[in-house]
Amino acid sequence: MTQSVETEAPVTVTGTPVAGRDPRLRWALLAVGLVAALALPWFVYPPVAMDIVAMALFAIALDILLGFTGLLSFGHAAFWGSSAYVTGLVATHYGVPFPVAVVGGAVFAMILAVPLGYLSIRRSGIYFAMVTLAFAQMVYFVAYQWSDLTGGENGLQGVPRSFFGIDLVETESFYFYYAALPILLLGMWAAWRIVHSPFGRVLVSIRDNTQRARALGYEVEKYKVMAFVLSAGLTGLAGGVFAINHGFVALTELHWSTSGEVVLMTVLGGIGTLWGGILGAFLAVMLADYLASSGFSGIDLVTGTVFVLVVLLFRRGIWGTVRHQWLARRLRRSSSRRSPADADPAKR
Amino acid sequence: MFVVTSPDARVAVRTRALTKVFRGFRAVDSVDLEVREGSVHALVGPNGAGKTTLFNLLTGFVSPTSGAITVFDEDVTGQPPEQVARRGVARSFQITSLFETLTGREHVELALQGLTRQGFRFWRSEKLLGRNRARVEELLTQVGLMPLADKPVGLLAYGQKRALELSLALALDPPVMLLDEPTAGMGVEDVDRTIELIRRIATGRTVVLVDHNMHVVGSLADRVTVLQQGRILAEGPYHEVRTDERVITAYLGEADHA
Fold first, then answer.
1. Statement: residue A127 has pLDDT above 70
2. Structural domain total, chain B
3. A200 contact residues in B (CB cutoff 8 A)
4. What is the DSSP letter of A76?
5. Same domain for B73 and B189?
6. What average pLDDT is seen over chain A?
7. How far is B245 from chain A (nearest CA, A)?
8. Based on the domain organization, do B108 and B134 belong to the same domain?
9. Taking CB atoms and an 8 Å cutoff, what residues of chain B touch A222?
10. For position B8, what pLDDT does the model report?
11. Nearest C-alpha of chain B: how many angstroms from A226?
């Protein structure tokens, strides 16, 4: 029944093709990424390098929702910031090694994400974004008011960087970078694992066609809540490392502008790509750092302009556009080699 | 207006006084439907007769204003689509409804996983989905899509997408299959192949079929229910229904001339 064809399918790739992965290319990319991560603090001021990697994990965590489930969260500062606070508090009050405090922060973010996710995913599209924003504002307000615990407007000062008494890590940000990097890389690996799991496949199907996923028996709400919680957990890991890196937690981490910033990075790099988040975070942090050190005061103006240009010119983001071109070229090549027999399975 | 079914046949799907009102418009109006187990039951009627709404009601995509739905005597009224699917009622969609970025193989893998809890395994490799390979390939071969298994469905032709629709419903191995215009928009040749395919997959199952094509209905259906303006106008075997005066006036006559 498939041989005679009603309408010839045009050779254009819609969305993000999952097919056509090249394992060699993937390993090569991974190697390049690892080398870049290891080399980064040699070229970039180490605390900034740490920010880049933490932001990269933040963007990747957001992308699990935005790119792979089709949910735009505009309240991820709630998880980033609350984990930063919890990490800071645990590190300050219990003097545990910082990885333990970071895990504590991430666990808190996940627990917070359960009710927030459960309530938010009842809406979709722009309404989902608005509900998440509203919840994040509530969390911001609580932190602002509860100044005995959080330091209110002054933030949480003097977060220690305890690491099994190893002086170099505790005092030198260069060595701290290498101590904290595995946590963030582990988080990125987890994101990759989630996206390329049976669960991740279901998320993509929900993104592409929610009703169809339901008809196949998938309990869409449960999957969305779980994606939300996992995303919050990885966001929490990143936020915790960020807090330790600065030795200080500012109220800004919970502010809605932080939620906006990470959406910007993810979209800049390209949603639904994972690598895009890393690239987006790198560019955004470097740009902000460069502009700040040049004494220029209109940082938001420049990043805003860059964002608008990217969205207008490269709808798929930078990484997404590159990948799309690459895949489309390969597809064109392979189909021109096989056509026209390709349209007719009986002849092959 | 309602034909009494023989008492010994089990009823797969039954509705009682099923009604759906959309802003005052009675899309489905007090419908008492009985679909006997193992039969191919066609729903026909002019556009706007309520066929698709009835389908959506039966599969939980729309919840009824009043009335009840049972599947093998279990009440499913008001249950969400995924629960209805888990009760063994699978459906295909009138408008091709697929996951544009996935391949045919990935579709069938997802469909096979749908009724398990394995979809929650976020810590495992997606290669896990490939362990049903033999079953996946059997299903794809059944609908003639095996040669195109690894293409994103965005690149498939219309008829091929329709075939994949069928294979997804089939993957659930459902006791009850609801097919919403499986031949819509197909050429004559494809229609005949689809009829053959449906006949094959209907063995041992209950099939509820909506189709405008009377050739399809005539070749497949054991029973036909004619809907008009949300109500059941007539019901019975195809040859009886097609000679029914009211039906001819309402619908069939025109279709036969066409």
1. yes
2. 2
3. 122, 126
4. T
5. yes
6. 83
7. 36
8. yes
9. 120
10. 58
11. 8
Residue ranges of domains in chain A: 40-256
Do the beta carbons of residue A220 and residue A206 sit within 8 Å?
A: yes
The verdict on B64 and B181 lying in the same domain is yes
Tokens matching residue A116: 């927030």
Domain range enclosing B131: 98-173
Both B80 and B106 in one domain: the answer is no
pTM: 0.83
Residue B93: inside a domain? no
The verdict on B76 and B35 lying in the same domain is: yes
Q: Do the Cβ atoms of B128 and B121 come closer than 8 Å?
A: yes
- Which of B155, B158, B168, B193 to substitute to test the interface with A, most A CBs within 10 Å? B155
**Domain termination site, one of B173, B188, B222:** B173
Distance CA(A297)–CA(A289), nearest Å, equals 12
Rounded mean pLDDT, A301-309: 79
Of A13, A208, A218, the CB nearest to B119: A218
Residues 157-196 of A with CB under 8 A from B: 193-194, 196
Q: What's the gap between Cα A69 and its chain centre?
A: 13
A156 SS3 class = strand
Alpha-carbon span B80 to B83, nearest angstrom: 6
How confident is the model over A271-279, as a mean pLDDT?
Answer: 89
User: pLDDT band at A334, cuts 50/70/90?
Assistant: low
- Is the confidence metric ipTM above 0.95 for this complex? no
Contact assignment for B121 to A343 by CB distance below 8 Å: no
Same domain, B82 and B179: yes
Confidence of residue B203 (pLDDT cuts 50, 70, 90): confident
Residue B88 has pLDDT above 50, yes or no: yes
User: What gap in Å lies between CA B248 and CA B214, rounded to an integer?
Assistant: 13
Is residue B193 within 8 A of residue B209, CB to CB? The reply is no
Q: Tell which of B173, B190, B220 closes a domain.
A: B173
pLDDT digits (tens, 9 = 90+) for B122-171: 877 777 777 788 888 888 888 888 888 888 888 888 878 888 888 888 88
CATH number of B253's domain: 3.40.50.300
In order, the DSSP letters of chain B are --PPPPTTSPEEEEEEEEEEEETTEEEEEEEEEEEETT-EEEEE-STTSSHHHHHHHHTTSS--SEEEEEETTEE-TT--HHHHHHTTEEE--SS----TTSBHHHHHHHHHHTTSSGGG-TTS-GGGGGGGHHHHHHHHHHTT-GGGTTSBGGGS-HHHHHHHHHHHHHHT--SEEEEE-TTTT--HHHHHHHHHHHHHHHTTSEEEEE-S-HHHHHHH-SEEEEEETTEEEEEE-HHHHHH-HHHIIIIIHHHHH-
> Mean of the pLDDT values across residues A51-60?
94
Residues B149 and B29 in one domain: no
B103 and B62 fall within a common domain? no
